[in-house]
Amino acid sequence: MKLAKLLLYILVLIGIFFGGYFRGKNQPTPQPPNQLPNPNPTTSSTQLSIPEFSNSQLQNRNVYIPILMYHYIRDNIDCEKDSLGCSLSVAPEKFSEQIAWLKANGYQTANFSQIHDTKYMIQNTKKSVILTFDDGYTDFYTIAYPILRANNFTATVFMITKRIGTDGFLTESQIQELSENGIEFGSHTVSHVNMSIADESRQYYEANTSQKTLEKILGKPIISFAYPSGFNSPISLTTLKSLKYIYAVTTAEAIANLKTSNPLLLPRLRISGSLTQENFEFLVQNGYRQKSTTTTTESVVQ
């Protein structure tokens, strides 16, 4: 009797084992979940490392940095026919005077990769200023850059990528040359779209495509973004975060505080064509304009 029970127990175990085995053999092989395609497998902002900024290490440091906003550096503009273009254009001699004053008063230029580098920020003891140029006009290469280079200054160009190589805008080879010589590039979207009214898919396209276009040209991470005309929405911030942008600039006028400002909503100081040297100095040092400098053309946000 005991032997019969033992044999029955063994047969049950064998049945369970082989039954499970063959059921497993008949099941389809588990497949990995679907993944979104990489829009550019060869170059990705997440593959290119950026130093991690630590606010805690700078608690006792002054991290106020004026971010200046330029567009054109040119002269001979017909202000009666093009008042906006006139306002956006700083004459070369004015620009030279502004740069000379910054240098003489102890300012050094920084870019967005540098201010995100904790080591750089800790070691930096001079006053910093960030020079930004929106749109990516050819005159940055022909006029502004030689002036900057002569003063050992750098800058960030926010490029409308659809305009690369078109009349009046930087070419790919010029962008590469400038980058090799210390000029940083950021995105200004593909087509200068209004980010406050564009839907989520359009905003993603504009921010992602422009970023990947510049990364393909330069082989460097594109971590900064300038909202066209300063317009943005909550969707804009979510989109930029998802694409690993670290900084974004607006047209709100103030001196940026790297401790307290939202890094995706940094203010800038707009340098208009009619700004006098005296008022330029006041603006850089105080973050707001003297009342005498406020004009109709200067109130236009671009």
TrEMBL record:
The lineage of its organism: Bacteria, Candidatus Berkelbacteria. One of its GO terms (cellular component) is extracellular region. Pfam families: Polysacc_deac_1. It comes from Candidatus Berkelbacteria bacterium Licking1014_85. It is found in: Secreted. This is Polysaccharide deacetylase. GO terms for biological process: carbohydrate metabolic process. InterPro entries: Glyco_hydro/deAcase_b/a-brl, NODB_dom, Polysacch_Deacetylase. Residues 29-40 have a biased composition (Pro residues). The keyword rRNA processing does not apply. Residues 28-48 are annotated as: Disordered. GO terms for molecular function: hydrolase activity, acting on carbon-nitrogen (but not peptide) bonds. It comes from the Bacteria.
